[in-house]
Amino acid sequence: MRATGDRPGDPEAKVSVIEGGPAPDPLLVQRAVAAGLRYRLAIDSFFGASHAIRPNGEKHTHSYRVQAVFVTERVDDEGMVAGFREVKNLLEAEAKRYANRFLNEMHPFTVVQPTGENLAAVIFRNVETRLLEEMPGGPRLVSVTLWENPTISVTVEAGGDAA
């Protein structure tokens, strides 16, 4: 690649795919590679928890897999999604809240049924709230998928009304 522009690191400079010439500014090339793209980042976490569907459901355990999908147009100077580590930590912290717990004893499941649908929605809301508080202007949460087992999952998405 060869970069053309007046100043090293100039975001207005253009990058071409022509080999040879002087060594380009790596930051300039990185910015050109990422320009105009949207990144969709999927992060998974795992936890085991038990629940019972009221009024007469038996207590049982699931090995849950939760996946949060984030979108952003921003990458850092190394080409990683800006805030990757932070959003990974947010999801892992949320999953740890439920690990080895009886969901029926945790808020809001003392009031609402601890279904996979409700658990996915609560995880979505909690991660979204922390993301907005801790990383304003960072990646945006677009969906949470929760698997109760390898063949059954539910996905909740930002946007509200069903189509």
From TrEMBL:
Family named by the database record: Belongs to the PTPS family. QueD subfamily.
PANTHER family: 6-CARBOXY-5,6,7,8-TETRAHYDROPTERIN SYNTHASE, PYRUVOYL TETRAHYDROBIOPTERIN SYNTHASE
Species the sequence originates in: Tepidiforma thermophila (strain KCTC 52669 / CGMCC 1.13589 / G233)
SUPFAM superfamilies given in the database record: Tetrahydrobiopterin biosynthesis enzymes-like
Domain of life: Bacteria
Pathway assigned to this chain's UniProt record: Purine metabolism; 7-cyano-7-deazaguanine biosynthesis
Catalytic reaction equation(s): 7,8-dihydroneopterin 3'-triphosphate + H2O = 6-carboxy-5,6,7,8-tetrahydropterin + triphosphate + acetaldehyde + 2 H(+)
Entry EC number(s): 4.1.2.50
GO molecular function: 6-carboxytetrahydropterin synthase activity
Name listed for the protein in its UniProt record: 6-carboxy-5,6,7,8-tetrahydropterin synthase
Taxonomic placement: Bacteria, Bacillati, Chloroflexota, Tepidiformia, Tepidiformales
UniProt xrefs under InterPro entries: 6-PTP_synth/QueD, 6-PTP_synth/QueD_sf
